[in-house]
Design a protein that fits this description.
heterotetramer, A: 452 residues, alpha/beta, seven-stranded parallel beta sheet, two-stranded antiparallel sheet, 11 strands, globular, B: 214 residues, Methyltransferase, Methionine Synthase (B12-binding Domains), Chain A, domain 1, Rossmann fold, 2 domains, five-stranded parallel beta sheet, 9 helices, 10% strand, binds zinc ion
Chain lengths: 452, 214, 452, 214
């Protein structure tokens, strides 16, 4: 049974199972909270300049939190997303985690500011090619990094895991939809199970919250390529919705949310099991353009800017500036909720973008709900993925036929191609495995996915 | 000539078997291999390029056509041994150390190859030593570096400095790209050029090598 | 008679007298349109690097307009706000104007993008100290710059004029409220009359739209100082609302709107005479923080980012990024209007911030309407200013007493001081003139304001 | 001593007449002028500073108190002629060429003066010649430059270069501030310090001159 009995019940700021963490933050309990993400300006990250890096992170955090105080924002989530080197050298990531957390503690003490820290470890496993996902040094580093950051003060653990990305990175640009669906329905699933079993273990051991994962490396890669005109938008839309079963695995293994911002597949998972979710839209234009700036907010519990580097703008440093923008976006949603207009407001967020782009259409709560139902009702993940893909093709076809969604001729042509593929895809994934093994030989290692 | 037209069409439509057998027929008909290459295969790729720029084709179709062209060209190749075919230029590409992003780089490589350049891909997370050694060995006309993170872009400068130390800087044009990079940064670190996207990268390499547009 | 018979009738996107200009842009005719403002990165502006500067402006404009195309934004207003040198050397400002306009023409031709160009000339008259406002080289340059930019393709002319700022810059930091009200009610009025008579003349001669002026140099200066804790917020609020009579003069002299973004006094003027207005709020965090991010949008016709320099962010250059944010903010408001929920949405924008800060409270449409009524009913501008100031003190006192607005003790103390001043201010401004002449001796020239 | 306490209180409350007559009384009572200065006037300004940092006072109150202190100090001044009063240091300040913003600069000046520094204000739109000439003439310990525009901040670098050309760079500490400026930029152009706001500017000047805090 889904956590909600209809898509009409799902709205921003409110989840069935709120998460309490950090300095008294409660996520999904009636209020949308900003999740601020920032990264360094153009500096090298290495032990040599550890002092500079630590100072930078402390400074940025201070400015972000001070902005919250200035604008009477009571709760905030801060995300530290590791760059490569911070996971590669777990001590490095941990010390930065500690610095940020200490700064948050100071603000809690001094101003009563309620804050929580999400630490997102880098999935450095795909550093080796073909990637070693279960064995070897990299995976050890990843887990060690989780442990050390949890110990150093992280409140929420996340990762943008990459199981199968070594194939989809090529399959997406080559339009090999069969391979994409195979990865999302088989390989990524197996990797998520492996990875999240351990992350949940670690979280329990250290008493922190296992947050969630995102299909960033698949769906957001596709979105970026579609933005650049490299691949059709309908294909990016398909990758988007077909990511739901994969990212759901984290929760099945014990993740509690808040799911991670760049997972646009999150609403379906919230509908499935009631975990709070983070989403990013217009305020993440600092990190990437997107054709779904408002609709992304429809059911969010945290509202994020994804990532902004610390450069100076006239009104302050960019992280402060985006904190302010997030705060006002949240204030508006929360004002609607307070006046019992949350559902009407959600509908406006949806109406704003629903037909701007097929990818935005995917974020329509009605469609998300149907994707959630597929995951609920179809037994194995591979068939969930295939059915979701069919849902995408059918929905876009329908909306196009009825004139609400406008597609170029080339998009239409591709929609036809996608339909051909998903309606003729083998029911037994082992048939695709042969194709994948041949076409992507040398790109991946079967045993690293527990494949025969 | 009708067969040549059919050949370009086969490339455009990504039909490998058809393209290969058309090449064989044309050779059997004693058509000049240069003509088959230029008026058939390259003509086809030009049509693909046009469609891509017009938004009618996407990358998968470009890559497929490129694959068909190469496959068909394999049949022709031996006929050129005597005259020797000049590639448009050699390029070495990689994503810099600490950075695991490779799609952007791969697209640039695919587009460059489609445009007739020889490209050697050093992969991702490439350190300056590796860049320098490959420049030394391969002697490319252009070295391309990609970075997707603010924290890895400074590494581009190190590579350029290393090239200078090794006395190689003047022998190769250096171009850079990636989300956090812009023209200003490229000039600051002493690169020869910056490209906003893959299409621009091809134009840039052409310009730097003074190669006429196909 | 006011243009609207109640504050309840005034809403974003719709004005009584829409303005048509540029490439088929219609402002205030049912849709909120983004107004994108950008400035150069850190480069020197001089004849030596005219080529670089021109290229930069062309490039930024191209990227901004391309972002509109990508996101299906049909109408956009671009603002070129002169830096000092562009007015100082009118040819310079004109050539950049022409470049930008040509770029807009290309986009109109190629993509059908509807755009209009606002050119805001720098008020370089305050370059000399004491400033020569009516005589001398600077004022000639200002008018020449208007003429040349109008000729070069500007569609809308604006200025952030500074008559009296030579006094308020000191009066604000010294808390000399009497002098502030004298400036806003007498000196600034006289200067606005002088200046706008000529700007309207020029506009008519060149067939362009005389846009409007803003009290930026007074009220936004005060807001910035309040943000930094330098002056009380209640004082900044007072300067804000007391600016209405001053900025209204532009319209009285013939300006047609859209009034300029940083004039938070604009809603009252829209209410007075139905001109469309530009406003800035959360999306102008790039230029300055503000305690009124949402409420500022309640009655806007253009929605602006105020100013952003051309630096690189991960998601693109900052002007593109803020164009995207503006577009989505506008889409949301326009979606509300389309679903006949504009008024409800406006109320949420108001509810979001109304009690966040006394300055936000000033933007409440009800209060703005009462300020408009004062301007309508009180004969001379000086008394309009005094009555508006009383309205501010009374309203804040009332809202504080009833517990809806919370003020610190120091703010309360200052509110008392302000009340004392405005309720005991001389009814005849010539009495204040003496005080001003003495205290600000050497700061200003009486004859430059037509003062005896 | 009760009268000294009343004097600090008069400064704190911005009561000029009261402060002046208290100073006169104290002198008549033969209280040591240094004591009047330190335990009366400066003590009062310290209390003002505290209230400002705590958000209880605003700039108008600080400026008023500062005015009262100076006015009362005028009466004391002659008594110090023999011993001579050491100012905490000399500062020259200006907004750079092309930039007409002066409020930020003025606030910094007011705060510096309040903290006991001698400040010469060069105004706005100041060209490098003027900065250099004033450094030469006035021989300040610190030169402060302000810029509010991205397009005027590069001018700060020119001033520093001009100081170097004239051999003056080492004789003066250079500090910079303003909306588009940050620490990184300050270091890049070779300034000695950057301050985020007026309060920081005072701390910075103190640090650079190694003056003990109040
Ligand atoms: Zn991501
Ligand atoms: Zn992220
Ligand atoms: Zn302004």
């Amino acid at each position: 049974m889904l956590a909600y009995s209809s898509p009409e019940e799902v709205v921003f700021g409110r989840s069935k199972h709120p998460v309490k963490c950090g300095f008294n933050v409660v996520i999904g309990d009636g209020e949308v909270i900003p999740e601020v993400n920032f990264t360094l300006p153009s500096v090298k990250v290495c032990r040599d300049n550890l002092r500079e890096i630590r100072k930078l992170f402390r400074d940025i955090t201070t400015r972000v939190l001070m902005k919250c105080v200035e604008l009477s924002q009571e709760q905030v989530v801060v995300e530290l997303e590791h760059v490569f080197e911070m996971t590669q050298d777990p001590q490095f990531g941990a010390v930065v985690t500690k610095d940020i957390k200490e700064t948050m503690a100071e603000f809690h003490e001094k101003y009563g500011l309620r804050s929580a820290l999400r630490v997102t470890v880098a999935d450095i496993r795909h550093r080796t090619r073909p990637p070693r996902m279960r064995n070897g040094e990299e995976v050890e580093k990843v887990f060690e990094s989780f442990r050390m950051c949890a110990d150093a003060g992280a409140d929420i653990l996340s990762i943008e895991s990459t199981g199968g990305k070594e194939i989809t990175d090529r399959a997406i640009v080559e339009g090999d939809v069969e391979a994409i669906l195979f990865v999302l329905g088989v390989m990524a699933i197996k990797d998520m199970e492996f990875l999240w079993r351990e992350i949940v273990n670690i979280s329990e051991r250290f008493g922190v919250v296992p947050g969630g994962d995102t299909a960033c490396g698949f769906a957001n890669t596709a979105m970026q390529l579609a933005n650049m005109g490299m691949i059709p938008r309908v294909m990016a839309a398909l990758v988007r919705l077909a990511s739901v079963p994969r990212s759901y695995i984290a929760v099945k293994m014990g993740a509690k949310g808040p799911l991670k911002d760049c997972g646009y597949e999150n609403p379906a998972i919230k509908m499935l099991c009631g975990v709070p979710i983070s989403m990013e839209g217009k305020a993440s234009a600092c990190a990437h353009s997107s054709p779904l700036g408002n609709i992304a907010a429809a059911t969010c519990d945290l509202w994020s800017n994804e990532s902004v580097q610390d450069v100076k703008l006239l009104g302050g440093d960019a992280p402060e500036v985006f904190t302010e923008i997030l705060i006002y976006d949240c204030r508006l949603m929360n004002a609607a909720a307070k006046e019992s207009r949350a559902f009407e407001f959600r509908d406006l967020l949806v109406a704003s973008d629903k037909y701007l782009d097929p990818q935005a259409l995917m974020l329509d709560p009605d469609l998300m709900y149907r994707a959630a139902q597929i995951v609920e009702n179809v037994k194995d993940p591979y068939h969930q993925v295939v059915e979701t893909a069919k849902l995408v093709v059918d929905t876009i076809s329908q909306e196009t036929k009825e004139g609400r969604l406008r597609l170029t001729d080339s998009e239409r042509r591709w929609l036809g191609k996608l339909g051909d593929t998903v309606y003729n895809i083998p029911s037994d994934w082992s048939e695709i495995l042969e194709h994948v093994e041949k076409r992507y030989e040398g790109f991946f290692l079967m045993e690293e996915y527990g494949l025969p | 000539m009708h067969e040549l037209h059919l050949l370009s069409q086969a490339v455009l439509e990504g039909k490998e078997d058809e393209a290969r057998s058309l090449v064989q027929n044309l050779l059997a008909m004693n058509v000049n291999p240069s003509r088959i290459l230029n008026e058939g295969l390259i003509k086809g790729m030009d049509m693909v390029g046009e469609k891509f720029r017009a938004g009618e084709y996407y990358l998968p179709e470009v890559l497929l056509a490129s694959k068909v062209m190469h496959s068909a060209f394999d049949i022709l190749k031996s006929r050129f041994v005597d005259v020797g075919i000049r590639t448009r230029g050699k390029v070495v590409m990689g994503t810099v150390k600490g950075d695991l992003h490779d799609i952007g780089k791969n697209i640039v490589i695919a587009m460059l190859e489609g445009a007739g350049f020889d490209v050697v891909d050093l992969g991702v997370d490439v350190d300056s030593r590796t860049f320098v050694e490959n420049v030394q060995e391969i002697e490319p006309h252009v070295l391309g570096m990609s970075a997707l993170l603010t924290t890895t872009m400074p590494y581009m400068k190190e590579v350029i400095e290393e090239l200078e130390r090794e006395g190689l800087r003047k022998r190769v044009k250096v171009i850079v790209g990636g989300a956090p990079v812009n023209e200003r940064f490229a000039m600051e670190i002493g690169a020869d050029g910056y490209a906003e996207d893959a299409g621009e990268a091809v134009q840039l390499v052409r310009k730097l090598l003074d190669v006429e547009v196909g």
